[in-house]
Amino acid sequence: MEAEVRPIPTIGETVPDFEALTTHGKIRLSDFKGKWVILFSHPADFTPVCTTEFVAFARLHQEFAKRNVQLIGLSIDSVYSHIDWVRWIKEKTGVDVPFPIIADLDMKVAKLFGMIHPKQSTTAAVRAVFVIDPEMRLRAIIYYPMSVGRNIGEILRLVDALQVSDKYKVATPADWKPGDPVIVPPPATSEEAEKRLREAAEKGYECVDWFLCKKKLPE
């Protein structure tokens, strides 16, 4: 009998739960329900690009923690390799890696989340990022090839944008960063469109037209 092939989770879906061995012991993804989770994969320990990424994630760890975000790394390496690599990073860079790293030797989690891209490698994960909200719903996916390191500041900005969108029921424009104006949801009827333009000034909206209005959020 062939093993069941589960579809890769897509944005808006509840992510599949799993149990895994990590540098912090066994964890279940559902242990972190109520927090935002960034689950990210890297191709291999003791490689140049991955090392720079882990240092960058670790340096921003407190910023993620302020936003109720749990970082979880993953690669298809053993827990002993992960432990040795984390110790090496501390020794050579002075940076502690304070978040767990999944040892996914059987590729169970990597396959569950679509981290294996055969045209890149059949034995190593690509640089995938999955942003999971406190209700265990997948909110964003980013894939990078093995040769390109991630911008960790952009991942932090993405979390800010998602949290602001959820809290205020708004959208964020291109290149948005905290403190910038946000986009007010567009009207759904002709009557509401006319009303939007009439009331824009008193509501503090800056409108290009009826469907594109921005506002500043409270400090």
Could you give a short description of this structure?
Helix content is 30%, strand content 21%.
Please give the CATH class of the largest domain: Alpha Beta
Main sheet characteristics: 5 strands, mixed
Strand order in the sheet with the most strands: 5-4-3-6-7
Shape: elongated
Estimated share of beta-strand residues: 15-25%
Total helices: the number is: 6
Helix content class: 25-40%
**Count of folded domains:** 2
Distance between the termini: 59 Å
Q: Which spans have pLDDT < 50 for at least 5 consecutive residues?
A: none
Question: Architecture of the largest domain, CATH level 2?
Answer: 3-Layer(aba) Sandwich
From the alpha carbons, calculate the radius of gyration and give it in angstroms.
20 Å
Number of strands: 10
Order of helices and strands: EEEHHEHEHEEHEHEE
CATH fold-level name of the largest domain: Glutaredoxin
Write the layout of secondary structure elements.
Layout: E1 19-22, E2 25-28, E3 36-41, H1 48-59, H2 61-66, E4 69-75, H3 79-93, E5 101-103, H4 108-112, E6 127-132, E7 138-144, H5 152-168, E8 182-183, H6 190-199, E9 206-209, E10 212-215
Parallel strand pairs: 3-4, 4-5
Antiparallel strand pairs: 1-2, 3-6, 6-7, 8-10, 9-10
Can you describe this structure?
By secondary structure, this protein is of the alpha+beta class. The chain has two domains: 131 residues, Glutaredoxin (3-Layer(aba) Sandwich), CATH 3.40.30.10; 51 residues, Antioxidant, Horf6, Chain A, domain2 (Antioxidant, Horf6, Chain A, domain 2, 2-Layer Sandwich). The protein is 30% helix and 21% strand. The mean pLDDT is 95.
